[in-house]
Amino acid sequence: MSQEKHNQKDEQLDQFRVKDEGEALTTNQGLKMAEDEFSLKAGERGPTLLEDFHFREKMTHFDHKRIPERIVHARGFGVHGEFEVYESLAPYTKAKFLNKPGKKTPIFVRFSTVAGSRGSGDLARDVRGFATKFYTEEGNYDLVGNNITVFFIQDGIKFPDFIHAVKPEPHNEIPQAQSAHDTFWDFVANNQETAHMVMWHMSDRAISRSFRMMEGFGVHTYRLVNEKGQAFFVKFHWKPVLGVHSVVWDEAQKISGRDPDFHHRDLYEAIENGDYPVFELGLQIINEEDEFKFDFDILDATKLWPEEEVPVQIVGKMTLNRNVDNYFAETEQVAFHPGHVVPGIDFSNDPLLQTRLFSYTDTQLIRLGGPNFHELPINKPVAPFHNNQRDGYGRQTINTSPVSYHKNSLANNTPGPVSEDEGGYSHYQEKVEGRKVRACSESFKDHFSQAILFWNSMSTVEKYHIINAFSFELGKCKEESVREQVLEMFSNVSHELVSAIAENLGLPVPWKKEITYTKSSPALGQENTIKKTDTRKVAVIAADGYSKELSAMINELKSVGINVEVVSDHQGTIQGNDNTELPVDHTLMTADSVLFDAVLIASQNGKTPLFRFEAPYFIKEALLHYKPIGAIKEGAAILEEIQITGQNGVVIDNSKQFIEAVRKARFWDREGKN
Ligand code: HDE
Question: Which EC numbers characterise this protein's activity in its record (predicted)?
Fold first, then answer.
């Protein structure tokens, strides 16, 4: 098991780790027990006695073991890692963890889906949460972001409404983890600031191939403040070094059945195999004096800053290198909050961000049962904490001083605030003035320009996926009025888009509106993303009697970082005609092409009828999902039999070409859509 250890946070966690193997069974009071299989009874066939403290303790603990799941982002997967800053960011921020080239900071990241319950599947069409806790020497800093750079609404007061709309409908709790239902789309059509985010939500971004292959965004505009007190507007980005990749919708739906833990397993296994995921931290910075220089309001969370206008500066990287020891203790109990900041990082007046600053602590109070959740090992800062807050459920700190108030003379006025020079946090003194109003700025009212920007930036195949996603989702809506309202709304984005959806839905095409916005931002498309062979997963379908070329091929694939898993018609091992032996990872019954990036077939016939039945199906499905297909030696006969030789991305007896096909990942032109 590969587990990178020994940073300050890891050492702190060590104090809480307990190894139970090899120990005697005790009660929570440390009492060793002589029996754990039978409750204490009055006679062998008699009733259980109240006196049985061991049974009572065991059952009570069990009865109380669930805590409320997160109201959103309930399903998540957390891992440890380290952040390293490349060069000093002192010109922008005084945050110490960003100020020394090469400085490393322990981090914990939790990836999540948003709408589904904790037990839902990973491949829902959904936004992914991307929350990072930096355990800095100045206290915890949380960057609580998503894999989509904008949000559905502009003001957090609408968040409960939005979540009510997207969650399962309240009368029958259907559908689970899906936005394909009436209330979601009714919300969209009646809250048109959702337009831009819905375009992302209908795009490939919402069905990522892996947590390791998606971008992360802080979404809001934050502030960086330097030592001199100068402030800069900033947006945070995480850029995956493996590039941004997605599955296709048909695959996503099938993966949900074949392996609902697909994303969790993928990340867990990558870390266990030592293939540590790396994301680079990028900053977009706007000087204060340029606040009004753009054709969008930089405080509006439904707007992005086009990378071509405001370049992303890469300033550091994080490496995810350690799985948790215990899911509940770490991943479930971790408590993020956008308000956990350190000196040098501050907020903007984005009304979505402002409301989040209230919600996160509030939710932890109910979810984690009281105000001491910062003492839980995963949440505990590595920076010491001292204040006059006392007591509460589950309090662990033993404050020894009788003085728990400020100001005081008995403890020499400690713990007391310190100056900024000594590291004290002081809020950026932004000048604000205005009337108390419940209103939205005029500058927030353009809901369609950037939805158009997104559409204009997509390749033909990405547009095709968006059309299909809308058609699927609206096709699941029962109310025709909802479908019509949505079509009408998106006719403000593209006539091509709504005409294609309308045709799929059998509805009249809305009136063609004049669209004057013409900008695009190539950085938004996934077509030109980084493409690598590293950690791509190839299923090698082989059976006893495989030819000697297979071992060489497998070695070649592995040498470029490809993960190879052998699929056969029986478990155990298979023997080649060169007397080599290969361990079988899966059978054709337990694996499926949707769980792999590519398929290589090396045999024509297996020991059992399963092979002849399942192998062609496996390959045909990979073909439909535009994936690379390779064959060596007798395996080619199967490709001929199912008549797919000669198609793009179908490679016979050529390892170099097959590797290149795996790197390319998808062959969209099989359907003539690129
Ligand atoms: Fe969250 N969000 N959110 N959110 N959010 C929560 O906090 C909330 C928003 C995000 O892995 C909750 O601890 C409000 C935007 C992530 O533990 C809750 C609003 C973004 C996670 C909450 C938003 C996010 C949460 C539920 C509108 C991207 C999971 C449990 C103003 C920038 C963190 C919890 C984890 C979780 C409230 C909008 C990201 C209820 C009120 C925008 C990644 O407090």
Answer: 1.11.1.6
Residue type, 161: D
Angle at 405 between CA 404 and CA 409, to 5 degrees: 105
465: which strand partners? Answer: none
Contact between 574 and 551 (Cβ < 8 Å): no
Task: Collect all residues with Cβ–Cβ distance below 8 Å to 308 and sequence separation of at least 6.
Answer: 521, 522, 523
Which is nearest to 540 in space by CA: 605, 631, 661?
631
- Map residue 594 onto helix, strand or coil: helix
> Is 83 marked within a binding site?
no
467 Cα to the center of ligand 1, angstroms: 29
Ligand 1, residue 359: give the atom nearest the CA: 44
* 349 among known catalytic residues: no
Q: How far apart (Å, rounded) are the C-alpha atoms in residues 670 and 288?
A: 49
For 82, other C-beta atoms within 10 Å of its C-beta total 20
Q: Is 405 helix (H, G, I), strand (E, B) or coil?
A: coil
**pTM higher than 0.90:** yes
Q: Which of 70, 71, 72, 200 to mutate to test the pocket of ligand 1 (most atoms within 8 A of CB)?
A: 72
- By most ligand atoms within 8 Å of CB, the mutation choice from 69, 73, 214 for ligand 1 is 73
Other residues' Cβ atoms within 10 Å of the Cβ of residue 588: 22
- What number does the ligand 1 atom closest to the CA of 155 have? 31
Q: In terms of DSSP bridges, do strands 563-568 and 586-587 run parallel, antiparallel, or are they unpaired? A: parallel
Distance (Å) from CA 377 to ligand 1 centroid: 21
Catalytic, 73? Answer yes
Considering only CA atoms, which residue is closest to atom 8 of ligand 1? 356
**Do the beta carbons of residue 251 and residue 594 sit within 8 Å?**
yes
ipTM given for this complex: 0.97
Q: d(Cα 194, Cα 401) in Å, to the nearest integer? A: 53
| Residue 159 annotated as lining a ligand binding site | yes
- Using CB distances shorter than 6 Å, the residues near ligand 1 are 70-73, 76, 110, 112, 129, 131, 144-146, 151, 156, 159, 219, 334-336, 352, 355-356, 359-360, 363
Q: Which helix (H) or strand (E) holds 347?
A: strand 345-347
Rounded CA separation 184/654 (Å): 49
Which helix (H) or strand (E) segment holds residue 106: the answer is strand 104-113
Which DSSP state fits 555? Answer: H
Question: Using N-to-C axis directions, what is the helix angle for 480-490 and 495-505, rounded to 10°?
Answer: 160
Helix (H, G, I), strand (E, B) or coil at 281: strand
Domains of the chain from N-terminus onward:
76-375 (2.40.180.10), 446-524 (1.20.1370.20), 537-671 (3.40.50.880)
Dihedral of alpha carbons 608, 610, 611, 613, sign: positive
What integer pLDDT is reported at residue 3 of this predicted model?
54
- Rounded mean pLDDT, 605-619: 94
Confidence grade of residue 2 (pLDDT, cut at 50, 70, 90): very low
Beta bridge mates, 587: 568
Query: What is the rounded CA–CA span in Å between residue 501 and residue 490?
Result: 10
Q: Whose CA is nearest to atom 3 of ligand 1?
A: 356
User: Is position 118 annotated in a ligand binding site?
Assistant: no
Look up residue 160 and give its amino acid.
P
Catalytic residue among 7, 99, 140, 146: 146
Residue 565's nearest CA partner among 605, 597, 613, 612 is 597
